[in-house]
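#dry-run=false #mode=assembly
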Amino acid sequence: MFVQQLVNGIILGSIYSLIALGYTMVYGIIMLINFAHGEIYMFGAFAGMILVVFYDVPFFLAFLLAMAFAGLVGLTLEYLAYRPLRRSTRLAALISAIGASIFLQNLALLIMGARPYTFPSPFTPRVYQSTLLTISKLEIIILAISFLLMIGLTFFIQKTKIGKAMRAAAQDIDTASLMGVNVNQIISITFLIGSALGAAAGVMVGIYFRTVTPTMGLMPGLKGFVAAVLGGIGRIPGAMLGGLLLGIAEVMAAAYISSQYRDAAAFAILILVLLFKPAGLVGSAIQEKV
Amino acid sequence: MISAYYLQIIILVGINIIMASSLNLVVGYTGQLSIGHAAFMSLGAYVSAIVTLQTGLPFIVSLLLGAAVAGLFGILIGIPTLRLKGDYLAIATLGFGEIIRIIFLNLKITGGAVGLRGIPKETTLLWVIGVTLLSLFVLQRIINSRVGRALIAIREDETAAESMGINTTYYKTLAFGVGAFFAGLGGGLFAHYFRYIHPNVFGFMRSIEQLCMVVLGGLGNMWGAIIGATALTAIPELLRAGAEYRLLVYGAILVLMMRARPQGLLGESIGQTGGRSLKRRKTLFTKIKLFRRNK
Amino acid sequence: MKKYRLALVIMVALSMILMLAAGCGTSQPASEPEGAGDEASEGTSEETVDVKVGTVGPLTGGAATYGESVRNAVQIALEEANENKEIPGVNLVLVSEDSEGDWSKAANAFSKLIDQDGVNVIVGAVLSSETAAGGPIVMEGKVPTISPSSTATDLTVGNPYLFRNCLSDEVQASQLAEYAIAELGFKRFAILYTNNDYGVALKDAFEATAKEKAEVVAVEAFMDGDEHFRPQLTSIQQKNPDAIFIAGYYTEAGKIAQQAAEQGISAQLLGADGFYSPVLVEIGEQAVEGAIFTAGFFSADPNPVVQSFVTRYTELFGEEPDMFAAQAYDATRIVIEAMKKYGTDRESIREGLAQTKDFPGITGLTSIDEEGDTIKDVLILKVENGTFQRLR
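#status=ok
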């Protein structure tokens, strides 16, 4: 049972990780909590579902198109709701993000209605069973895609020129700008990638849990944010680790403590971690210069 | 005669003014980002309601007891978490808020998932006006006192404040406790107005709504919290005419208002808010801009 | 700064006065419709009088799908009554308000309907918490209110203006438990309930009945809107039950069924009226095949009233009605019957609702008892080939 629960936690956690990445990348550069990220995730899921169900687009193509679409939504959002506030307080930008989140959620509700849409799995259902573990083909694919995307992102950030510019901007936007980094462009790219990853999570959740609704982004959005903070917000490996840990913590709490207190236990673990590591798991407090 | 609907909205405005101005003490004046204010409201609501229902003590006693328990929890939660900075503090307060809500959802004495019904109606317009004015008065006195100056010093630069001999942990915890106390008062009024409470309205979205009131009105400005609370209570009701477009418009209004007045409706135009990392960021962007211009 | 402050004081004062003025201005029409019924009966002209019927429920937020169903069904019932001129000289008008699924906002919606719109009757609210918050308000405003779906225990007790039209959680859960033990021969039960008033009431009743003659081996909870049930299902699987009672709504139930199947759980799925929606089969597909649940409504019922409702609903909204819609339709029909027999003002409707006896609705014969609660038959349905079949 323990192994099974661990795997349950890893699968859930890998989804949280993907969502957390979108938060953390944006935060790393402009220190904004992109509260509307959960809605981007929902838009991605809807785009994927509509393409697959209504236009019979092959799944992987739809997956990529949904990522592209959500990336564009993210870009637009940044341009309309965040860029004008870049020079104001962080809280102002946060409120703008909350407004954008409410707007996007209700836009989806108006267009699509409240009734849940089903997102049928494109893969033939198959379950692999052993004494220790039962896992479905879909779950293996979800895990594989999540980890591929995370590896791809790490590669992109570590090896490419844009990635280097992003890291530079995250470290010190001032100096990066002096070094010839086009900050606006980097911020746009960050939103594009972060939103696309959110959409990837959205589509996978859509097929994993089979439904797409306008409010589906709320809780995962919150959990993704929590995961990002848990890992150390602004740090990409932190988001991955934080997501996995949160997923495992939640599942273990439900399994061994009480399913009534599933979320409470997850939050309690979060608080405990923060009390011992006040800047998240992989964060460090170096930014405290006087 | 005033219609019952308007009376209800005015009472809610009053309660929200208490909520926003007490949160303003924590976020606006002390610079500590909290997204768990609704939890203190729920503590005040549940404790006062349970006291009224179980003991039949006068309203004023249960109201104060509820507020005291909320304040106590504020201090208890504040002591460990206020060491955290910025968004880490925010997420820890959010976590505590959710934990408290889930506990209320599962306890027997709170009615659990069924909620608590049959609370006597004690909250009248007079009570709300009285408690609101009293809260504003006390909060204003705190802000204008030595304590208030210490809080603002912490917001402006915690390290500098510490080196000036201000016991930052003490003052931050104090602000958190006082904020929680008044949130508890608001919660008590809330419970005895609706005569029913259920944990679901005290979730993180309620905390965020209260944060919106403070930021929209203008951080660190008492009048700002009042205007923010009034606006964000009234707008969704005024928008009822918009039927299904209501929340869509509400979201858009939030974005546009922040675009038009990033410092909040009554906020000081620059400086004031948010602590050091923020200022650093701000100066960075000014530097970048200057640099570009010179290029 | 001083000047600033003065300006503000004036602004606040002005806005307060404005609000008060508006309050006075608009509170007047509220009393008008009360006399509307009398006018209609006195008047000999063919002119019709508008009588407003309000609904309160979530139209945004996570529970919006339930609120939409209710509003849609009420709309159909009112349109039909107007088309057939069921109440002479009266045109029924729907005013629906959003609660966002938040009971304090539902309370605002109730107040607005009563004072601003001057509705004579309210069909709602949808969630139990919303109705619980609205109860005192409709009692003070003396506006009869019938909830189509708020099942919380004793909700209507002590409130002469509050009624409801839905299956009792206690009755359906204990009947299901008895049926599962006696007819289906199950001995080991697991319960997976949603941690809200609906789920908790079902769980308590089912557990109490099942424990008398059989064993309850696992009880697990989940939250409204949860999507991931693997940890709970893994725990349940360890206990190897014969049947799993899912005390929750169709969206979650469909997902639970899917995840249980993926995990290789072959236990019989049981459920309550929250299962009743075509969405259950859409989400659950093969996994909900064979699931057995209680319900008050059955769309394949040959009864022509049921068929005409199902057809009309499907035509208008592009989907089959769910349990919320069926109960809301009946609740509205009960209101219309009350208006026909007793009159369209608030007191007459209240009287009519209280006197409801053996109303032949699409959710079966319905009576309202002295506490405002409903008495109706419990059906037991089974999912067969993706459609619902009646077992009992």
